[in-house]
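Folded chain entry
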Amino acid sequence: MLYYLYFLSSHWGPLNVFRYETFRAMAAALTAFMLSLAMGPKTIVVLTRLKLGQPLRQKSEVRELADLHSAKKGTPTMGGILILLSVTISALLWCDPANKLFWLVLGSMLFLGFVGFADDYEKVAKKNSKGIRGWQKMAAQGLLAIFVFVYLNYFVAGYPGEWNRLYIPFLKSAAVVDMGVLTVVFFGLVIMGTSNAVNLTDGLDGLAIGCSISVALTYAIFCYVGGNAKLATYLLLPLVSGAGELAVFCAALVGSGLGFLWFNCHPARVFMGDTGSLALGGVLGVMAICVHQELLLVIAGGVFVLEAGSVMLQVASFKLTGKRIFAMSPLHHHFELKGWDETTVVVRFWIMSLVGAMAALATLKLR
């Protein structure tokens, strides 16, 4: 579609807008949003008919949380399919198919979506609330990290060693010029960290998707700036050829996320499941790698960091001392058990996510 519009734009002036990433980003967001709204009801009906309801953990596992979430039992899961479909269709319509970074992030999202689908199917079909084994998820994420490294270094144009550099927010130049083979390990940590952190955050209606929207919007801006020679030079960001096209993809994520939130807000009619959460987190990590803004995820995705950190602290504390730091982890469950209403927890976490997004955007000038 995009090439056809390019051809028309050369013959009819008003169609020149299709050459601009900003216009196509807005079009991609709107397209993904409308697709989500249009496909949502049918998707929910199909998932319900197939009896792909969310299994809940036993009361022996989650104690009083089982009573708080009892009404969620049977709500269809695997709703991440809706996100993946709307993003994919919108991105294929509005992104430049000649852009190699676009195919990398799209392929990464769909690959992790497949891993998440396998995990959801294990939970639903075999009534196993734990899903596939943790090492299997990590192995898949590790393989993706290796692929991303090879793809960027051998299939994407750039100066020698470009993808081995480490940039830190607030600094004007690379903190590490060449990480060498450690680059693969670093990519693995980024992808595993973001993918699993979003997965852990997906425990309340609208929580994970709402926070993902603000992070995707933040990276839409960084991708656009990082792909624009004038803006990148002025704001002292690493220039990445073709990164501006990822802003269009990020916009599709935002639009799709808003459409999914329409059905996922409390009381949720559908859950994204691991199909959505693993894919969303992973693709955010891959996009951060593509624009050399991996560590910015700690700021923009601060809520995800808190959620994952609370789990690690809880496990470490219990193993070392036999005591728990939180009433329950991840962190959102702690506040639920402390008496906060579910909607209160979600909205306040959204607020923290927006604050993190604004702090991340502030780094554009604080260098």
